[in-house]
Amino acid sequence: MTPNPTRRNWIAVASADHVRSGRAASFMQVCHGKASPLRRLHPGDCVVYYSPTTEFRGHEKCQAFTSFGIVCDRQPYQPMTEGDFCPYRRDVKWFATRDAPIRPLLDILEFSCGRRNWGHQLRFGVFRISDHDMRAIATAMGVSQFPD
């Protein structure tokens, strides 16, 4: 299987409860609703969510990849909301997956292999990863057909 040279792969970071909400409504949101990180993603890019915690501002660890999808054509947008918080979102086609704990993958993922401070990149909210890493994560999550 030849990788798509134009597709890019991303890890986004959010609590598992926020990921579930976005998944249910077919969107993603990162960095407290900022638009600029979402503008870096392009239609057809793969995105996987890593959830450090089970709930936003919670202390219960999740430390797993919790959702896998493909970025849709629609550009970042602000939905109609009540109140002062008007986050930007991006539409995503989410795949059927299972959660995949990160610890068993740390030695095979290029972004983490041999790095004691592998979690540092997660603080940015969204970052690019290699095709190798995305395929390994997708396999661990049970994605049956990796998009090309």
Task: Count helical runs.
Answer: 3
| Count of the separate structural domains | 1
Regions with little confidence, pLDDT below 50 for 5+ residues: none
Quantity of strands, as a count: 7
Indicate the structural class.
Answer: alpha+beta
CATH topology: ph1033 like fold
Q: Characterize the largest beta sheet: strand count, sense, and whether it forms a barrel.
A: 7 strands, mixed
Under the CATH scheme, which class?
Answer: Alpha Beta
The run of helices and strands is EHEHEEEEEH
Distance between the termini: 8 Å
What is this structure's SSE topology?
Layout lengths: L8 E5 L2 H9 L2 E2 L7 H4 L6 E8 L7 E11 L18 E5 L5 E2 L24 E4 L1 H10 L8
Parallel strand pairs: 1-3
Antiparallel strand pairs: 1-7, 2-5, 3-4, 4-5, 4-6
